[in-house]
User: What shape does this take?
Amino acid sequence: MRFTFVVPGLASLDRAALASSRPLSRLASWSRPRVEPRGMPAALLASLGSAAPEPAHDVPVAPLAALGAGVDPHASFVLAAEPVHLVAGREDVAVAGRVDDLSAADARALVDALNRHFAEDGIAFVAPRPDTWFVTTSARPDIVTVPLDTVLRSMMSAHQPTGGAARLWQRWSTEIQMLLHAHPVNEARARLGLAPCNGVWFWGGGQLADVGLAAPFRVHAPADRSADLVRGLALASGGEAMALPGSFEAAIDAVPATRPATHVVVALPGVGHALAEIDRAWLAPAVEWLERGRLASVALVTDGATSAVTWNARRPSAIARLVARAAPRRFVVPER
Assistant: This one.
């Protein structure tokens, strides 16, 4: 059995904290890091056997995330349409942050307004959760987009879509700003002192057919937006998506004897300051199983400020195990 951990943000933790982790040191002793400058989605696809498109095209995050959020896009082209708070400056507009505190009723009202406005333009908005929006179209637009995480707290003008249809989508983005600015939902939010949802950021476009074939796997993941991509990839591969248990042993116990898994993926919430708990409940027992030959491999996919990194350790030889015990390699996140 292969085992893969997806741990957002781990690579951005303090170097001393990472170097002090014994399970991470053992993984580093038995593998080499692979850096993916296009970020976590591309690294995740590669780790799970589904190659991402060339850099000239979007990594197709949106169709997979939509599937993971409960929306089957079928053959539609899908873009993430993230609700954002924009702040106008003297010469430009800044993307101040995501709007992730909408009520279900407010999100529905905003999405309904968008769908009425664009009813004749061949695009449709859908919000499976108040903080998770997508836009679908039957025709593939000629645009390349920038992930929202790259744009947050910076100016819009440097990160606009490019390609033959870029001007159209930029115009639609401006129309959305005007529409949402005056919407009663935002007027009510202003009275409550809440940041208005006065924009939508499009990114990660593609179709399910753009996703390379991956072998089926079972994923354990949180039920929120953070795990939509890996959950969608599991479903697209013909695998299963299950709830996140509390430990490595619980994830192993959840594998039915009648349907043995060849690959189990665990998507953990953003790491924050919980490295010690992740070590105890997940990494240490998985590395021990690897050392004993009870797992074929253990992989770790994570990201930091500038890129994503993957470590993939196969069962080490007896000499490699002895070396890792006597003089383990420090777990160091490469710069690039």
